[in-house]
């Protein structure tokens, strides 16, 4: 998912590691389900301003799979 207003740099990291991203990952986590969608752009902008170039996020299955198997 890409927040409006952010210019994301896209890169590819293959699982076989023949091509490696050159540079350091500076990552942080965000629990998007605890932040109102109106504030996502602000939070992601703050993370970028803090120098992060990667973001980890969790997927809460209890939000997305209300009924088991569906």
Automatic annotation (TrEMBL):
This is Glyco_hydro_35 domain-containing protein. One of its GO terms (biological process) is carbohydrate metabolic process. It comes from the Eukaryota. SUPFAM superfamilies: (Trans)glycosidases. Pfam families: Glyco_hydro_35. Residues 25-70 form the Glycoside hydrolase 35 catalytic domain. It comes from Ascaris lumbricoides (Giant roundworm). Belongs to the glycosyl hydrolase 35 family. GO terms for molecular function: hydrolase activity, hydrolyzing O-glycosyl compounds. Gene3D superfamilies: Glycosidases.
